[in-house]
Design goal:
The protein has about 300 residues and is α/β, with parallel strands linked by helices. The chain is about 25% helix and about 25% strand. About 45% of the residues are buried. The strands form two sheets. Strands 6-5-4-3-2-1-14 form a seven-stranded mixed sheet. It has a seven-stranded mixed sheet with strand order 7-8-9-10-11-12-13. The longest helix has 17 residues, at about 270-285.
Length: about 300
């Protein structure tokens, strides 16, 4: 039995609708993850969460909707869809929103502030669903019937990487498949600057620890916002190049790399070209790494 992930938002920074982004999508980050028994896990609450909410309401047909929402960080493109997430306006629904313990302001405060009367017509206190806020620290926890591991990554203001495995997968994993204490599962790193010129305070072991965190994942969803040329003018912006994402995937021996957080200006045809270049890079290095680009509507079994 495995996890299943569905992509509802793949774009970075700002929604980018239009004829040039139809195939890969213009909504900001949101993924739906389902455990083998159907438990709902939402990764980030960009504008993609609006369509997820409509789908959940339709499928629920009046029955309560419950789940966990994990936020990598609190930048606009990762929380801006939450006030338009239909299930939070209906009584009986219940969600736990998980955020970083290391944030300068608590995740509950950030979510409430973006629904203050100054910027939004409905306050957080008017929501009908039951919403609980919880903090995640570095390490591993087990919120329900799945395991989630957390690691801080390099992004202005801080951000988290998540690794998910179903409890069934964890029990079935043998030592070879999980030699680093992890299970194959899904790794989600939406915003992360891998470049050596990144101006962050980090230990010498940070890269080694990141590879260990990612190692052996069945699917790695990773920030691939810039080309190498574009990155020269964006040091410190908190995002990686295509080449850096491929290098991490190869070093970490993952099965599939999903290029994510597409640059707002990146057209579908350009995403095609960059994906082909990444595949060629992986092929030249040998091995069996598969490279695909995140697209709204894409579903993968993990």
């Amino acid at each position: 039995m495995s996890l299943r992930v569905h992509f509802w938002g793949t774009r970075g920074s700002i929604p980018s609708p239009g004829r040039d982004t139809v195939r890969y999508g213009g909504n900001t980050p949101c993924l739906e993850l389902r455990t083998p028994d159907g438990w709902l896990i939402v990764l980030d609450a960009g504008t993609g969460i609006r369509e997820l909410g409509r789908s959940l309401m339709q499928d629920a047909n009046g029955t309560p909707i419950r789940g966990d929402i994990f936020l990598t960080h609190a930048h606009w493109d990762h929380i801006q869809g939450l006030p338009f997430f239909a299930p939070i306006f209906h009584p009986g629904n219940q969600f736990t929103i998980w955020g970083s313990k290391a944030m300068e302001s608590s995740i509950g405060r950030v979510v409430r502030d973006q629904m203050s009367p100054v910027v939004f017509p409905v306050t957080f206190e008017e929501l009908a669903a039951t919403i609980e806020f919880r903090e995640l620290a570095e390490g591993r926890s087990a919120p329900a019937n799945y395991d989630v591991s957390v690691m801080p990554v390099q992004h202005p203001g801080g951000a988290l990487a998540f690794r998910f495995a179903s409890r069934a997968t964890a029990k079935a994993s043998n030592g070879a498949a999980a030699s680093n204490g992890q299970h194959r599962g899904l790794v989600y790193i939406s915003d992360n600057e891998l470049g050596a010129a990144a101006p962050y305070t980090r230990t010498a072991a940070w890269r080694r620890d990141l590879v260990r965190f990612v190692h052996g994942a069945r699917v790695l969803v990773h920030d691939a916002m810039f080309t190498a040329e574009e990155y020269r003018n964006h040091h410190g912006w908190g995002h990686s190049t295509y080449d850096d994402a491929v290098e991490l995937a190869l070093e970490s021996e993952v099965e599939t790399l999903v290029l994510f957080h597409h640059k707002p200006e990146r057209t579908d045809d350009e995403v095609d070209r960059q994906t082909d270049e990444c595949r060629s890079m992986a092929a030249r290095r040998g091995g069996s790494l598969q490279v695909i680009a995140a697209a709204e509507g894409l579903t993968l079994d993990v």
